[in-house]
Amino acid sequence: MDDSDMRTEDLIKALDADARDKAMPLGKAWWLAVGVAVAIAAVVFFATIGPRPDIMPAMHTMRFMSKFVFTLVLAASAFALIRALSVPGASTGRRMAWMLAAPLLVVLAVVLELFVVPEADWGKRLIGSNMMICMSFIPLIGIGPLAVFLGMLRYGAPTRPVLAGAVAGLLAGGLAATFYAAHCFDDSPLFVATWYTVAIAFLTLLGAIGGRLFVRW
């Protein structure tokens, strides 16, 4: 091992020790951050658009509930990954693989939708009726949680700040999309796969930029 490798390893160990020596353990701090982020998202959601009026009967339909499966799986897998990324030297391979779960679920739902919906209706299902609202309110609901998660990354010591910031955006996007799904009248997987993805991708880009600018060591 040459001197540069030794210096890098020593730096990672020092960062790891610093992350573990915080006033609050990093693992507990992340759970607190998620609680704060959920509270912020809830305030924005209920102060602006709120749930759809027919949410109770909608909850008995598979299309409506499938939206939450996608958003919650995305949020859960991003949370597991970002916790690992905030600790230098932590293993991330398996957690990275779990990030494929939400996209695969959406692809499966889209394929099933294409089988059961007439081809003439595909375009209508994809465009929906709330495209602009979706692309506006998911980022609006998620921007506060994203700021919380970027702050948590500074509390830790990520060695890949751009990646960590992008995952923070995915986590904020999954959380925001979960709230927005309770308002959204477009339940088609075609709509979710397209416009939810665009809105979450915007938060992911913001997170990556935030990681590059604010989460550095």
TrEMBL record:
Keyword flag Membrane: yes
Pfam families xref list: NrsF
Coiled coil: none
Keyword Metal-binding part of the UniProt annotation: no
Keywords: Membrane, Transmembrane, Transmembrane helix
Residues that span the membrane, as ranges: 29-48, 68-85, 97-117, 129-150, 162-182, 194-215
Protein name from the UniProt record: DUF1109 family protein
